[in-house]
């Protein structure tokens, strides 16, 4: 029995659907950035799996950097972003693609866009796996979005609940209590 099977998780986006959608988005990015080099900046921890799959499907010269930001505690956004690990790459005059797992209030993405802009890139585009449109506090620009989700809390494919469930190959909602954790 797989370890997460004891939890009641309702699949929202299956593994196949996720991979199919990422291929479509990767194709769009490859066409839009044709003949250009792209610096991908992925937000840890949540986007590590998405970033790995997306970059392998993008047909461009890419480099990658990671930032570790935290704004969530359990199932609640804290509206304040902490930088735990910052940018290391030189960003000036580069075509930056920010890769984020999920945009909820928009506070994290807004913060990162401002941090990156400050370093004078040539341009900044954003690519998100999930767009939770209903709880926005900051008006952020999203250039590529794989899926729109409602306001419920989802896990899997990099997304966690208190650090767990990131390794699920699909995205789902946890039903009921987590007491048998
Ligand atoms: P925001 O700053 O409120 O937009 O939140 C963005 C961050 O909150 C994401 O990078 C995730 O780490 C986390 N987050 C928001 N919603 C969820 C969810 O449904 N599941 C897991 N993490 C979430």
Structural account:
The chain has 181 residues and is of the alpha/beta class. The chain has one domain: Rossmann fold (3-Layer(aba) Sandwich). The chain contains 3 helices and 9 strands; from the N terminus they run E-H-E-H-E-E-E-H-E-E-E-E. A 6-stranded mixed sheet has the order 4-3-2-5-6-7, sandwiched between helices. Strands 1-9-8 form a 3-stranded antiparallel sheet, with helices on one face. Strand 3 and strand 4 form a beta hairpin. Helix 1 packs across helix 2 (48-57). The model has no long low-confidence stretch (mean pLDDT 91). The structure holds inosinic acid (IMP). Residues 43, 46, 71-72, 77, 100-109, 153-155, 159 line the site of inosinic acid.
Layout of SSEs?
Blueprint: E1 9-13, H1 15-32, E2 37-44, H2 48-57, E3 61-73, E4 76-85, E5 95-103, H3 107-117, E6 123-132, E7 144-149, E8 154-155, E9 171-174
The structure holds inosinic acid.
SSE-based structural type: alpha/beta
Record the strand order, biggest sheet.
Answer: 4-3-2-5-6-7
Give the overall average pLDDT. 91
Please tell me what the overall shape is.
globular
The topology string of helices and strands comes to EHEHEEEHEEEE
Task: Provide the CATH top-level class.
Answer: Alpha Beta
Low-pLDDT residue spans: none
Ligands (ions, cofactors included): inosinic acid
CATH topology: Rossmann fold
Strand percent estimate? 35-45%
CATH architecture: 3-Layer(aba) Sandwich
Helix content range: 10-25%
**Count of separate structural domains:** 1
């Amino acid at each position: 029995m797989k370890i997460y099977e004891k939890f009641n998780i309702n699949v929202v986006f299956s593994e196949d659907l996720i991979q199919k959608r990422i291929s479509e988005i990767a194709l769009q990015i490859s066409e839009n950035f044709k003949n250009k080099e792209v610096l991908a900046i992925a937000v840890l921890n949540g986007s590590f799996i998405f970033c790995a799959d997306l970059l392998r499907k993008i047909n461009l010269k890419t480099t990658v950097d990671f930032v570790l930001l935290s704004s969530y505690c359990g199932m609640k956004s804290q509206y304040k972003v902490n930088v735990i690990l910052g940018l290391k790459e030189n960003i000036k005059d580069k075509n930056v693609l920010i890769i984020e797992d999920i945009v909820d209030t928009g506070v994290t993405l807004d913060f990162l866009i401002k941090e990156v802009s400050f370093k004078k890139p040539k341009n900044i585009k954003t690519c998100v796996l999930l767009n939770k449109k209903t709880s926005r506090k900051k008006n952020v620009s999203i250039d590529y979005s794989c899926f729109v989700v409602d306001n419920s809390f989802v896990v899997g494919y990099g997304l966690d609940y208190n650090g767990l469930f990131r390794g699920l190959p699909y995205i789902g909602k946890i039903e009921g209590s987590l007491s048998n954790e």
